[in-house]
Amino acid sequence: MIQSYRATDEETQACQEIGSIPGHSTEVPSHEKIVRLPEVMRQYIPNPGSE
Q1: How far apart are CA 15 and CA 22, in angstroms?
Q2: What is the distance in angstroms between the CA of the first residue and the CA of the last residue of the chain?
Q3: Which tens digits make up the pLDDT trace of 1-51?
Q4: By C-alpha distance, which of 1, 34, 30 is closest to 16?
Q5: Spatial distance between the Cα atoms of 42 and 23, rounded to a whole number of angstroms
């Protein structure tokens, strides 16, 4: 589980414009939320392309 600030409507819109994994919808299901993580958290999230 990740706990953070809830994304604003503008941030959610930007995420939808950027897109997602190819073939996946950018719509956020009603039972999910987009959260905004502080930059420092990037070091804890795996990045498959970084190896």
Answers
A1: 14
A2: 25
A3: 777 888 888 988 888 888 777 777 778 788 888 788 888 888 888 877 665
A4: 34
A5: 24
5 backbone dihedrals φ, ψ, rounded to 5°:
-70, 145
Nearest to 16 by CA among 31, 24, 26: 26
User: How far is it, in rounded angstroms, from Cα 8 to Cα 48?
Assistant: 27
CA 39 – CA 34 distance, rounded (Å): 15
* C-alpha triplet 29, 5, 41: angle, nearest 5°: 100
